[in-house]
User: What shape does this take?
Amino acid sequence: MAETGGPLPSVAVVGCGYWGKNIVRNFAELGALVAVSDASEAAASALSKQHGVPSRTVVDLLADPSVQAMAFASPAPLHAEHARAALEAGKHVFVEKPLALTVQDASDVVHLAHQKGLTLMVGHLLRYHPAVEALTALADEGGLGRIRHLVSNRLSLGKVRAEEDVLWSFSPHDISMALALIGEMPVEVMATGTAALKADVADVVDVSLTFPGGTTARISASWLHPYKEHKLTVIGEAGQAVFDDTQGLAQKLAIYRHEAGYRDGVPTVSKSGPEFVQLSAGEPLKSECAHFLSCIVNGATPRTDGVEALRVLAVLDAASRSLKSGHKERPLAVD
Assistant: This one.
């Protein structure tokens, strides 16, 4: 857990549903929760009693100067509106992904946070997973050499949405990981998908990314897959890594030192066994919430700040345009 270095900021959580209740629990366990809010009085009341904090309206929380920060797990179409209102009220903001549904709305929120000098953090949860933290550190240190290709599969059966397609529901996590590992924005995005259950709501999506340095990535998402697969494979010139989130902690992150090349014009491959990386146990969401508190206290930039969220949204937007056009699309410039 991140060290805050000072008194904890007071946090109110808006949204007490499927995911919001986990955010409420973690801020409560960290000692920062002061209130909850939800459109459903029953949902808010249940968590209010469970954690010993009042249930209050959003309007009331925005007007209360003793509430220093607000965390939003509200429906995605409300994220930008809620974030703007909290920032205007002088609150630090944690908001679940996506930050907004359009690049322009997200950009407006990011600029407002900068103008107000307030912390803005977006919930790209897997960036706080111990396996992803270890993998990112390894890549940054050059432990995999130059990354040439990346494959991320987020496949399962269920959690079907009626409005939000699988691209927007599942893929922000994978895009965030890909951008962090590769370290640059793609120049081309190509997406294909299948809307099997409802017209115009893709249930299966494949996204191909091409980066300026020649690195490529493929991201696949489906909520119609017969079995669960949450796996990230990174292929570098000095090694390969596999993060398999369906495995136990001891085998979640494996490093391979396979070698491949040409010798006297003949392709050769030398295989090696996996080296499993020892990971520290811990709930990624708790690490994420603790990081938010630490950034407020210490004035640090969150790992998944508004700018990072804006880049992820630019890729999502390009992929959505590609799904409709059937052509490669270029992400909007956001830096």
